[in-house]
Amino acid sequence: MDSDNGDAWGAYYAFESKYGTKEQAEEVKDKCDVAEPVHGEHWSMISKAHENRNLKRGDLLGKVAAAISARVQAKDVDATED
After folding, report:
1. pTM value > 0.70
2. 71 touches 46 (CB < 8 A)
3. Which of 24, 32, 48, 81 is deepest in the core (most CB within 10 A)?
4. For residue 81, what pLDDT is reported?
């Protein structure tokens, strides 16, 4: 995984939050904090939003994970409608 890519961390965190334990999700959050990601479509957009400027990296990670999960769910819905 590209440790500089916040979207990758967001997807990883979303996965562990859904399928892993709380401890596994927290471990991903801690590793993300150490990695200090700065790239990624969702990460860049969310981290640069004015209302998020004072958020800690872990809070940004949660928002990125939610955005990625919503995007995946929307694609799943589109795929079932075809």
Report:
1. yes
2. no
3. 32
4. 61
